[in-house]
Design brief:
The complex is a heterodimer of chains A (about 220) and B (about 110). Chain A is an alpha/beta fold. Chain A has a single domain, classed as Rossmann fold, CATH 3.40.50.300. Chain A is about 35% helix and about 20% strand. Chain A has 8 helices and 8 strands. By secondary structure, chain B is of the alpha+beta class. Chain B has one domain: hypothetical protein PF0899 fold (2-Layer Sandwich). Helix content of chain B is about 20%, strand content about 35%. In chain B, the strands form 2 sheets. A 3-stranded mixed beta sheet of chain B has the order 2-1-6, with helices on one face. In chain B, strands 4-3-5 form a 3-stranded antiparallel beta sheet, with no helix packed on it. The longest helix of chain B has 11 residues. The chains are: A alpha/beta (about 220), B alpha+beta (about 110). Chains A and B meet through β1, α5, α6 and α7 of A and α1 and β6 of B.
Chain lengths: ~220, ~110
């Protein structure tokens, strides 16, 4: 006897993500989910970003890693409130789910924030599948990775609203075809904004900051 | 684990000594799920659960898309997400991101 179920496996997560979205909307806070492979430079990018946008954009960060508080310690130097989630207590999950984000976000005074950044676990696969209630998703890739990363991980690049191509200060020392990388990005996601930056030096940051601040102000009207 | 939980919850409350023979799922080719790995893990995880002995039957769903400019619909087989007819990148994914439990089959 066949019993129809017809239920999404991620139904529970998606329901919680919707609830998160309502909470963030009521509080008037823009939520940015930042994803990448390990080592692309997410934390350095966010360190430099926070310095440039605060205090005009009141910001907080939730950081996900399997272990350590290293990234949270670095980001806390910006004076933004930071919460570290270590997934080893959940069996070492390779992504952040809507449940853990909802619980962590509740620890912030969301009404007095403009921007909540989620630095996801370094992983180009699973985080793309998990809606956490965010307003926008950004994927960071660096010039020390292969140009064809976008076509190897198409779901991530399809799901994101913008890409940051990081470590451009290293281009003189590499055989990296930047135009090919951008072309691959647009092959998977046409017209996706690509911000070419060097998080170490701050080069190329203006368009990235303008995009982010614009997105925040669109939602918060502040 | 979510698959096991959802399938277990679908077993009617009044069914006694029920034996679940099959759990039918749809896995889209764009989802971050590898069917063989899913089967491997399922077979291990269902031991000592109401689903013990059940077979996981996976229907792989192709990635299909719709062009918002020329209304073309096609199957995407490689990582090229633009319309093959008019080269437009403004497309809508119709299928291929599923990760659904469709049904369970219990022994009569």
């Amino acid at each position: 006897m066949e019993i129809k179920v017809v239920k999404k496996v991620l139904d529970v997560n998606d329901t919680l993500a919707m609830q998160n979205r309502e909470v963030f909307k009521a509080a008037g806070v823009f939520v940015l989910n930042v994803m990448s492979a390990p080592g692309s430079g997410k934390t350095t990018l966010l360190e430099k970003t926070l310095v440039q946008i605060m205090p005009r954009i009141k910001s907080a960060v939730i950081v996900g890693d399997i272990c350590t508080t290293n990234d949270a310690d670095r980001l806390a130097r910006s004076k933004a409130p930071v919460i570290q989630i270590n997934t080893d207590q959940f069996g070492g999950e390779c992504h952040l789910s809507a449940k853990v984000i909802g619980e962590a976000a509740a620890k912030f005074d969301l009404k007095h924030l403009d921007l909540l950044i989620v630095e996801n676990v370094g992983n180009l696969v699973c985080p793309a599948e998990f809606d956490i209630g965010e307003d926008a998703r950004v994927v960071v890739l660096s010039v020390t990775e292969g140009e064809d990363k976008p076509v190897k991980y198409p779901l991530m690049f399809r799901q994101c609203d913008a890409a940051v191509l990081n470590k451009t200060d290293l281009l003189p020392y590499l055989d990296y075809d930047k135009d090919a990388a951008v072309s691959f990005i647009h092959q998977v996601h046409a017209n996706m904004p690509v911000f070419e930056v060097a998080a170490k030096t701050g080069a190329g940051f203006a368009p990235w900051i303008n995009w982010l601040v614009g997105k925040v102000k669109e939602k918060t009207h502040r | 684990m979510q698959i096991i939980e959802i399938a277990t919850n679908a077993i009617p409350d009044d069914a006694k000594n029920v034996r679940v023979e099959r759990v039918n799922v749809k896995v889209g080719k764009l989802s971050a799920v590898v069917p063989d790995s899913l089967k491997f893990c399922f077979d291990i995880a269902i031991k000592d659960t109401p689903l013990s002995g059940a077979e996981l039957v996976i229907e792989e769903i192709p990635v299909t898309a719709h062009c918002n400019k020329c209304e073309n619909e096609w199957t995407i087989s490689e990582a090229v997400f633009s319309c093959p007819r008019c080269d437009n990148g403004d497309i809508h994914i119709l299928s291929g991101q599923e990760l659904n439990i469709e049904s369970i089959e219990i022994a009569d």
